[in-house]
Amino acid sequence: MEYYEELVNKYKRSAYFYALGMVGSVEDAADLSQEAFIRAYRSLKRFKPQYKFKSWFFRILTNLCISHLRRRGKRAEVSTEDEKGATIPLPDDRFNPQLLLERRETMSQLWKALSELGAKHREIILLRDFQELSYQQIAEILEIPIGTVMSRLHQARSRLREKMTGFL
User: Fold this and answer.
1) Residue 104 in domain
2) Structural domain of 109
3) Is the residue at 130 inside a domain?
4) Do residues 33 and 19 make contact, with C-beta atoms less than 8 angstroms apart?
C-alpha cells in the first residue's frame, strides 16, 4: 500500500492534466484520474512487471477518458478556467509580466486547438509531448504498432500546427 501511494503521488499531476486534455473538464479530469488510480489498485494482481507501471496505468486512464467521452457524446473543449470561473494556474514568470501574459494566451490557444483535434490525435500528443512517453510506451497504451504511433503523431502535430497558425 505504501509503495502504491508513492506511485499515486508520482503520477497524480500528470494523470490529471492528461485527463483534462482528453475530456476538457476540470471536475471530470479529477474524477477520471482518481478512478483510474482506484481501478489500477484493484487490478494490481494482473499487472505484469515486464511492463512499466506508467504505461499500464495510462492505458487504464485512456480507456476511462474514451468511455467518458462516448457517454458524454461530444468533443472535449478545454478551458483555462475551472467551473467557478477561476483561472487554472499556468507557468509563472515573476520577472516579466508581458511574457507571463503571452504565455497564458499561448497556453489558452494551445488547449483550445488541442480540444479541436480528434480524440486519437489529441491523446497521442498528450502522451508524447505532455507526458513524454516513449513510442513503445504509447504503442502499449494505445495498443497500436509503433509505426502507427509515429505516423499518427506526425499527423496530429501537423493538424495542431495548422490550428495554432489560425490563432497566431
Assistant:
1) yes
2) 2-82+93-167
3) yes
4) yes
Written as tens digits, the pLDDT of the chain (168 aa) is 678 888 899 999 999 989 988 888 889 999 999 999 999 999 988 888 877 888 899 999 999 998 998 888 754 444 445 455 555 554 444 455 666 567 677 777 888 888 888 889 999 998 898 888 899 989 988 999 999 999 999 999 999 999 888 665
Q: Report in angstroms the alpha-carbon separations of 141 from 30, 44, 71, 109, 158.
A: 20, 16, 21, 27, 22
CATH code of the domain in which 18 resides: 1.10.10.10
Q: How many domains does the chain have?
A: 1
Calculate the alpha carbon distances from 1 to 4, 11, 144 in Å: 5, 15, 32
Contact 23, 76 (CB under 8 A): yes
